[in-house]
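Hey, quick one: can you model this chain's 3D structure?
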Amino acid sequence: MRRILHIDMDAFFAAVEQKRNSELIGKPLVIGGRDPTQRGVVSTASYEARKFGIHSAMPLRTAYKLCPHAVFLPVDYEEYSRVSETIKLLLREFSPIMEDVGIDEAFLDISQIDKSAEEIAKEIKAKILEETGLTCSIGIAPNKLLAKIASDMQKPNGLTIITEDDIESRIWPLPVRKLWGVGPKTETYLKEMSIETIGKLAAVPLDTLIERFGESYGRYLCEASKGIDESPLVTHREPKSTSREITFQTDISNWQDIARTLAELTREVANDLKQAGCKGRTITVKIRFSDFETHTRAKTIEKPTNSADEIRTAAFDCLKRFALKKKVRLVGVRVGGLEKLKVYIGNNL
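Sure thing. Here's the predicted structure for all 349 residues.
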């Protein structure tokens, strides 16, 4: 039987900040921006801040209204990435089969390790605490889907084991939103069908789900609600795209300001591509207007590139296809269809 661990760091960004500044411990802490009166969104909130209803992706201004005495800090992605790399290197010491699914989480396959899953999980938690001073929550299950659900069941600093025998008693009573891949739109559709728990979803015939959600997603919902997940751990992923975007502090309508911002974003994307050793062919520009209406325009060029000039030219061609009749809130650029550069050493590839 497979034994999969899902390791999820507890309030990671906030925890890193509290670790390097002990005065922040025990205080409601919001990561996302130093000035909550400015535009921005919450990246992470400490558990003390979450008691006030603050959560990730919430506008900073809303978070400030909920908890005016919270401490607000900007995102220090460089430091969080450094700590994350330390944790990922540590996890690979326990198993070489690791799927890196984000800066603060990962899956481990420990099926071939001659030691109990609970014992391994406890050793991982102790090692992470020793090396970083941070806590994590770990879910243990026969597959990735159940392991991810399990890791969220006893946060923070939890350790939860789910077996196939537990699906009916512990998984089915949970809200459908707890299923990996079920977002707010699907949740709304399911509520319209009077389906609010995973158990109720499991009782829906496969044909009904396929009719409502399509062959692929309908089948996924059917299997996931029953705890079925045969997906392997993906130990290596090639990037499919890279992007940059910026939200203006005040909505703008000046075309030159928009174009200047877009040019800077294309330069940053080109640098990202060069550092990753990639080139791309499809350039997409995203515009979000003041009323939050969002549109994209794309152009596919003949040859892959990581040239800032070529990306900028294509991006400007896309920009010309927008009707800029409303003020603009956000501008973004993405380069997709990525290809890895071939490296030649002497006469060898």
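One thing worth noting: Residues 167-225 form a domain with the DNA polymerase; domain 1 fold (CATH 1.10.150.20).
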